[in-house]
Specification:
Protein name: c-Myc-binding protein
Radius of gyration: 32 Å
Largest sheet: none
Strand content: under 5%
Distance between the termini: 90 Å
Subcellular location: Nucleus
Keywords: Nucleus
Number of helices: 3
Helix content: over 70%
Main location: nucleus
Family: Belongs to the AMY1 family.
Length: 92
C-alpha cells in the first residue's frame, strides 16, 4: 500500500504527465524490473553476441590449424636439413 501511495504522490509531483501511465506505474513499482521492450533488446543483443563468439571460435580453430600446418612444415624442413628457403644446410 505504501508503494502505491509513493507512486501516486510521485505522479502528482511530476511536472509533465507520462505518456503511458501503466509503464510509469510498472517502472516505479517494479523497482528495476525491465519492460518487455528492454527484455527483447537484451535478448537480441545476447543472440548477436553468441553469434560473434561462435564466429570467433571458428576463426580461432581455422587459424590454429593453419599455424599447426606451418609448424609441421617448418619442423619437416629442419629434419631434412633445409631452411625456409629450401636450401640444404650442411653447416652443422
Amino acid at each position: 500500500m505504501d508503494a502505491l501511495i509513493r507512486v501516486l504522490v510521485g505522479l502528482y509531483e511530476e511536472p509533465e504527465r507520462p505518456n503511458n501511465a501503466i509503464e510509469y506505474f510498472l517502472e516505479r513499482l517494479g523497482a528495476g524490473v525491465p519492460l518487455k521492450a528492454e527484455l527483447e533488446a537484451l535478448q537480441n543483443e545476447i543472440s548477436d553476441l553468441q553469434r560473434k563468439v561462435h564466429d570467433l571460435e571458428d576463426e580461432n580453430d581455422r587459424l590454429r590449424k593453419r599455424l599447426d600446418s606451418f609448424d609441421n612444415t617448418g619442423s619437416a624442413e629442419e629434419e631434412a636439413g633445409t631452411g625456409s628457403d629450401g636450401v640444404v644446410d650442411n653447416h652443422e
